[in-house]
Amino acid sequence: MLRALFAWNVLTVRAKMLAIFEFDPKPWEQHRNAVAALRRTIEETGQIRPSSSFRAQRAAFNAPSDVPGFDKIVQLDFDTSTAWVEPNVTMRTLVQATLDHALVPAVVAASETVSVADASAATTTESSSFTFGTFDCTVLSMEMILSNGQYVMARTDDRNTADLLWGSAGALHSLALTTLLKIVLISAGEYVEIMYSPISSISKARCMMDRIERGHSGPHLSMLDLSKDFVEIIMFGSSSGLAIIGRFTPTTGRAFVLQSLKGNSFSRHARPVWCDSRFAHKRRVEILPVMEYLFRHDDRRRPARGKRRSRDQKSNANFGDEAQGVWPIWMYPSRPPESTGRCSFGTGVRFEHMFWNIRFYSPSAACDGAMERRLRITHGFRYLHCRAPCSEETVWVFHNDRWYGALRSRWKAQGLPDVGTRLRTARPLTCT
């Protein structure tokens, strides 16, 4: 009797698990119907329908980055740890859905309202990027509709379409309409354990990055599993900053638990931590719920001029003069696209080693220009962001216009606004 009862319980559990992971064809059918309707509209009219946000217009705050609708999670594939999502799915929606299964996207944009298509098109970088690279490096496939209505499934393992997938990163939706993305997921705990350690200069931050790239332990890395953690640096000035190291944890342990930042930005929370750590000569450890940590920098109240990336660590460690008035500066070590076998938009610059993503709020165009001049001197690179307008001349200083033009020609993108048009019609908004 007991054996029979035990066997029945096992079968019940298995049946429930099969019900959870059973493939549901309905979302796929709905998605295919929506794609077919979009293609018919394009083929019949010969152009993108006017309601699409790809038309030349001023960028609206948090406006969908892709065609209207297309805002559903089509499938979570637990066998391959991937998610098939439509382009207008927001980061918050995706994280909430995957976190229920102890998974999160490998790279999560700082703002919960950013769509997955925008995160890929703007080459979003976050604190997990030192392992996984920019957000676009975690996209394995993209279903795209060309401006003439042709259907393309661009994949990293398909040499005939890989250039479209890679070129879309940083191209600001100027190559094709994205209708579906396959995104890498990673295992996640319920909390993130954060360790703060004071940094006295940007050169010290560079030394820390060198250790990360070599994979060696150091004073900032001794407690980490490098395959599952987060690394970022906040510099409050040229001689004051914090290295912030995080890792997933299933429990809170004895560390101080922050249930919420209570409306404060993470940098405002971290500044007193720097003061305490500096004078106490010890590290501080805190715990944040995963959702609170991933969106800790979600501050949509201040405009941003854009993001800057640099591959030259040593030269770019001396940008203090140009940075006057823009503190704090957020710095993220990032794995180069080439290490994943791909190249991103603007292949005139090759990243051979891990590079810095430098994020800041620029108070003026003059300060913005000074930072860009420093990037040119140090062979740095500016990735484009649709909410960080810049001149077309500036675009082609950092990007390969011949390669981009050839890519648009190959994929018949003449029916879509090019990068220059997208940037001219943009206005400065919160940086993601």
UniProtKB/TrEMBL annotation:
Q: Which GO terms describe its biological process?
A: steroid metabolic process
Give the UniProt keywords, A-Z: Oxidoreductase, Signal
Show the GO MF annotations.
Answer: Delta24(24-1) sterol reductase activity; flavin adenine dinucleotide binding
| An annotated GO cellular component | cytoplasm
Q: Where is the signal peptide?
A: 1-15
Residue ranges of coiled coil: none
What is the protein name for this chain? 24-dehydrocholesterol reductase
